[in-house]
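ok trying this again, last paste got cut off
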Amino acid sequence: MRRREFLGVLGGAAAWPPTARAQSSPGMVKRPLIGVLTLDASDGDTVFVKLFLDALEGLGYVDGKNATVVVRYAGAKPQALPALGAELARLKPDVNENLGFA
């Protein structure tokens, strides 16, 4: 999979406007779950993750406030990506493949 296609899948939920989120019960707005998978080390302060979180904030999504962002780091080990991707998929993130990053 090409990197741009991969990023489009990962950040898909970011394209949804805050008003379009699903409601779990009357008056309760569900926070979208956004999964991020990166080859970076697990220092939690990578440039990619910071830029991604900044872009989400620019779209009105703030981790811990109106969105939940789950990051998985492969630690520069490409062989770890399938297992980490499967782990993120089991969390059932909100995804919209029409993001338009490509």
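PB: full thing came through this time. The chain has one domain: 3-15+29-90.
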